[in-house]
Protein backbone atom coordinates (compact mmCIF):
# COMPACT_ATOMS: atom_id res chain seq x y z
CA UNK A 1 0.00 0.00 0.00
CA UNK A 2 1.36 3.42 -0.97
CA UNK A 3 1.85 6.16 1.61
CA UNK A 4 -0.69 8.94 1.21
CA UNK A 5 0.73 11.72 -0.94
CA UNK A 6 0.77 15.00 0.98
CA UNK A 7 -0.15 18.12 -0.97
CA UNK A 8 2.91 20.09 -1.98
CA UNK A 9 3.09 23.24 0.16
CA UNK A 10 2.93 26.74 -1.32
CA UNK A 11 5.65 29.29 -0.62
CA UNK A 12 3.68 30.78 2.31
CA UNK A 13 3.02 27.32 3.68
CA UNK A 14 6.73 26.47 3.43
CA UNK A 15 7.56 29.52 5.54
CA UNK A 16 5.18 28.27 8.23
CA UNK A 17 6.59 24.75 7.97
CA UNK A 18 10.13 26.10 8.44
CA UNK A 19 9.06 27.64 11.75
CA UNK A 20 7.28 24.47 12.88
CA UNK A 21 10.17 22.21 11.87
CA UNK A 22 12.50 24.38 13.97
CA UNK A 23 10.13 24.49 16.96
CA UNK A 24 8.55 21.03 16.68
CA UNK A 25 5.10 22.40 17.55
CA UNK A 26 3.70 25.88 18.10
CA UNK A 27 0.63 28.05 18.41
CA UNK A 28 -0.46 30.39 15.63
CA UNK A 29 0.84 33.33 17.71
CA UNK A 30 4.28 31.75 18.09
CA UNK A 31 4.50 31.06 14.35
CA UNK A 32 3.27 34.56 13.54
CA UNK A 33 5.87 36.18 15.81
CA UNK A 34 8.66 34.48 13.85
CA UNK A 35 7.13 35.25 10.45
CA UNK A 36 6.64 38.91 11.42
CA UNK A 37 10.40 39.34 11.72
CA UNK A 38 10.83 38.20 8.09
CA UNK A 39 7.95 39.91 6.30
CA UNK A 40 4.97 42.15 6.90
CA UNK A 41 2.08 39.77 7.50
CA UNK A 42 -1.09 39.88 9.56
CA UNK A 43 -1.99 37.48 12.34
CA UNK A 44 -5.27 36.56 10.66
CA UNK A 45 -3.39 35.69 7.46
CA UNK A 46 -1.09 33.33 9.39
CA UNK A 47 -4.13 31.80 11.13
CA UNK A 48 -6.01 31.29 7.85
CA UNK A 49 -3.01 29.69 6.11
CA UNK A 50 -2.47 27.33 9.05
CA UNK A 51 -6.17 26.37 8.98
CA UNK A 52 -5.90 25.64 5.25
CA UNK A 53 -2.75 23.59 5.86
CA UNK A 54 -4.64 21.57 8.46
CA UNK A 55 -7.49 20.97 5.99
CA UNK A 56 -4.94 19.88 3.34
CA UNK A 57 -3.34 17.41 5.78
CA UNK A 58 -0.01 19.27 5.98
CA UNK A 59 -0.48 20.12 9.69
CA UNK A 60 -2.29 18.53 12.60
CA UNK A 61 -3.95 20.61 15.31
CA UNK A 62 -4.13 19.60 18.97
CA UNK A 63 -7.33 21.13 20.37
CA UNK A 64 -7.13 19.49 23.82
CA UNK A 65 -6.26 22.81 25.49
CA UNK A 66 -7.59 26.35 25.08
CA UNK A 67 -4.63 27.28 22.89
CA UNK A 68 -4.41 25.12 19.78
CA UNK A 69 -1.00 23.63 19.04
CA UNK A 70 0.01 22.86 15.44
CA UNK A 71 2.53 20.25 14.30
CA UNK A 72 3.77 19.37 10.81
CA UNK A 73 2.64 16.01 9.42
CA UNK A 74 5.76 15.53 7.28
CA UNK A 75 9.41 16.11 8.01
CA UNK A 76 11.65 18.66 6.38
CA UNK A 77 13.49 15.80 4.64
CA UNK A 78 10.29 14.31 3.18
CA UNK A 79 9.27 17.71 1.83
CA UNK A 80 12.73 18.33 0.39
CA UNK A 81 12.62 14.95 -1.37
CA UNK A 82 9.16 15.76 -2.77
CA UNK A 83 10.38 19.08 -4.20
CA UNK A 84 13.62 17.58 -5.51
CA UNK A 85 11.73 14.76 -7.23
CA UNK A 86 9.34 17.19 -8.88
CA UNK A 87 12.17 19.48 -9.95
CA UNK A 88 14.32 16.62 -11.22
CA UNK A 89 11.50 15.07 -13.24
CA UNK A 90 10.29 18.41 -14.61
CA UNK A 91 13.24 20.73 -15.12
CA UNK A 92 16.03 18.18 -15.40
CA UNK A 93 14.25 15.50 -17.47
CA UNK A 94 14.66 12.85 -14.76
CA UNK A 95 18.43 13.25 -14.53
CA UNK A 96 19.84 13.44 -11.00
CA UNK A 97 23.22 14.31 -12.53
CA UNK A 98 21.82 17.39 -14.30
CA UNK A 99 20.15 18.48 -11.06
CA UNK A 100 23.39 18.18 -9.10
CA UNK A 101 25.42 19.93 -11.82
CA UNK A 102 22.85 22.72 -11.91
CA UNK A 103 23.19 23.19 -8.15
CA UNK A 104 26.98 23.10 -8.36
CA UNK A 105 26.99 25.84 -10.99
CA UNK A 106 25.60 28.19 -8.33
CA UNK A 107 28.47 30.62 -7.71
CA UNK A 108 27.31 31.35 -4.17
CA UNK A 109 28.60 28.02 -2.82
CA UNK A 110 31.02 28.52 0.04
CA UNK A 111 34.29 26.62 0.43
CA UNK A 112 32.73 24.76 3.37
CA UNK A 113 29.72 23.73 1.27
CA UNK A 114 32.02 22.49 -1.51
CA UNK A 115 34.02 20.50 1.06
CA UNK A 116 30.81 18.91 2.41
CA UNK A 117 29.72 18.01 -1.13
CA UNK A 118 33.09 16.38 -1.88
CA UNK A 119 32.94 14.38 1.35
CA UNK A 120 29.40 13.23 0.56
CA UNK A 121 30.41 12.16 -2.95
CA UNK A 122 33.33 10.17 -1.53
CA UNK A 123 30.97 8.41 0.92
CA UNK A 124 28.53 7.76 -1.91
CA UNK A 125 31.28 6.28 -4.10
CA UNK A 126 32.61 4.11 -1.24
CA UNK A 127 29.12 2.81 -0.49
CA UNK A 128 28.88 1.49 -4.05
CA UNK A 129 32.14 -0.49 -3.78
Describe the protein's architecture and organization.
The chain folds into 2 domains: 11-72, Arc Repressor Mutant, subunit A (Orthogonal Bundle); 76-128, no CATH class. The longest helix has 18 residues, at 111-128. The chain is mainly alpha-helical and 129 residues long. The chain is elongated and about 55 Å long. It has 6 helices and 2 strands, in the order αααββααα. The protein has helices at residues 11-23, 28-36, 43-56, 76-91, 96-104, 111-128; strands at 59-62, 69-72. The protein has a two-stranded antiparallel sheet. The two termini are 32 Å apart.
Q: In short, what is this structure?
A:
With 129 residues, this protein is mainly α. The protein contains six helices and two strands; from the N terminus they run H-H-H-E-E-H-H-H.
Could you give the distance between the termini?
A: 32 Å
Question: What's the total number of strands?
Answer: 2
Q: Under the CATH scheme, which class of the largest domain? A: Mainly Alpha
The appropriate CATH architecture of the largest domain is: Orthogonal Bundle
Comma- or semicolon-separated keywords:
129 residues; mainly alpha; Arc Repressor Mutant, subunit A; 2 domains; two-stranded antiparallel ribbon; 6 helices
Which helices and strands occur, and which strands form pairs?
Blueprint: H1 11-23, H2 28-36, H3 43-56, E1 59-62, E2 69-72, H4 76-91, H5 96-104, H6 111-128
Antiparallel strand pairs: 1-2
Helix pairs in contact: 1-2, 2-3
